[in-house]
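Justification of computing resources. Each target in the renewal requires a structure prediction run like the one illustrated here; the chain below, 255 residues long, is used simply to show the kind of job we budget for.
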Amino acid sequence: MTDLFSIKDKKILFTGGSGGLGKGMAEGMLEAGAEVVLLGASAKSLSLAEAYRARGWKAHGLQCDLSRRAAVEKGFQKGLELLGGELDVLVNAAGIQRRHKSEEFPVEDWDAVIEVNLTVPFLLCQMAGRQMIRQGRGGKIINFASMLSFFGGYTVPAYAASKGGVAQMTKALCNEWARYGITVNAVAPGYMDTPMNAALTDPANPRFKEISDRIPAGRWGLPEDMRGIGIFLASAASDYINGAVIPVDGGYLVK
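Resulting structure tokens:
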């Protein structure tokens, strides 16, 4: 019987895989035998891929400025070349955050967050969708939404808007591409102990206790908590799951 959860030799293009939650998911996929291109804005993706290859994993690093649309298109094409001209899975995990009071939020920061968190994932989904339709064997797209796809948050109007957009974009693309055997789903990480949340994980911050008390699992999430959901959504086990926004939050959303 074919292993429904196998992603061995799957060809994956992964943005945001060199740090935080994306790194946790990317490492899970590599350990499971996939071939992964880490597309990142810094040179870290290059050194990380080299370290992964030393462990016997099939990893490629590719530096790409995700804030420049021309660079994004070139990065996608170069990533496709590194994968031998084929693509099975796209993961859009890259994201940025800016915090200001909403009445003081600079439009420049709004534009930057919307561009990287919403427009770039759309462009990459579009390019991946075209490639998968041409290949004629379906494919998997995994977007990173957020708890702020459901809630508004505080001092993060651009981030909330971008992640709400990712959730709705995921559903819209599912409607059009399901007939090609392409699944488009999103994960919505809860409160995770990552550098992006450093201001919240400080025990001196009153919100730290407020958030912690609401998580039924009794702890904040960690990057390794993203491994299982990534493998599942990239595998045949999730073939009939499409257009979903799946919380990975230790139960926070339902309390």
